[in-house]
Structures are given as structure tokens and as C-alpha cells.
Amino acid sequence: MCCGGRGETGGEARAQAKSRSSRAGLQFPVGRVHRHLRKGNYADGVGAGAPVYVAAVLEYLIAEVLELRVGHCSAPTLWNISPQSLRLATFKTHLLFNRTFDLLLPNLPSILP
């Protein structure tokens, strides 16, 4: 019995499974985000692209916060990230953003609510 039939041992091996995170080029776990979106009762159904998008946004936000922390840290060689250093970095950035926003948009009643 060389050809066909059930339980044939010969043939090609199955390809190695690729995670959705690696397919999307992300470090955050897309499968875990999908599970939490389903279990969280946020909607009746969760599409296939939603967890990829949420994982990408989370990864971007974490990268930005870490970059802010390194930029505002007095000793950038320290690897421990404390809540105080994150709060200080986001506070300084918030002040900078507000000043830039005030310079870019003048006080026009038609624009502001």
C-alpha cells in the first residue's frame, strides 16, 4: 500500500504555525487581546482585525511612554521604571503639548467649543 488511504505516514510535513502577532509584525499577543475582547462583553462579536488593531495601538502607546520616560529620566542607564518616572514624563509632555497647542491655534471662538 504505497499510495493513498488513511493513516499514511509518508508525505509532506505540516508547516509550522505562525502566530497572529508574528504575521502582523507585533510584539504584543494578538491572541490574548482577542480573548480579552471576547470575554469582556464589549460587543456581541469581535472581528478578526479588531484584536490586531488594538494590539498595535497598545504596542505603540507603550513604546511612546517608554521613550518619554527615557527622554526625561535623569539616569537613563537605570532599567527600573517607577510610576513616579512615568508620571513625571507624561506630565512634562502634557505641558509641552498644551503650550504647543496654544501657539498653533489662536483663541478663536469658532474653533473652540
Automatic annotation (TrEMBL):
The organism of origin for this protein: Callorhinchus milii
Protein name: Histone H2A
Transmembrane segments: none
Annotated SMART domains: H2A
Key word Acetylation present: yes
Quaternary structure and interacting proteins, as annotated: The nucleosome is a histone octamer containing two molecules each of H2A, H2B, H3 and H4 assembled in one H3-H4 heterotetramer and two H2A-H2B heterodimers. The octamer wraps approximately 147 bp of DNA.
This protein's UniProt keywords: Acetylation, Chromosome, DNA-binding, Nucleosome core, Nucleus
Biased composition (Low complexity): 12-24
Record GO terms (molecular function): DNA binding; protein heterodimerization activity; structural constituent of chromatin
Principal location listed in the UniProt entry: nucleus
Gene Ontology cellular-component terms listed: nucleosome; nucleus
Keyword Methyltransferase: no
Biased composition (Gly residues): 1-10
Residue segments, region Disordered: 1-24
Location of the protein in the cell: Chromosome; Nucleus
Family: Belongs to the histone H2A family.
Residues making up the signal peptide according to the UniProt record: none
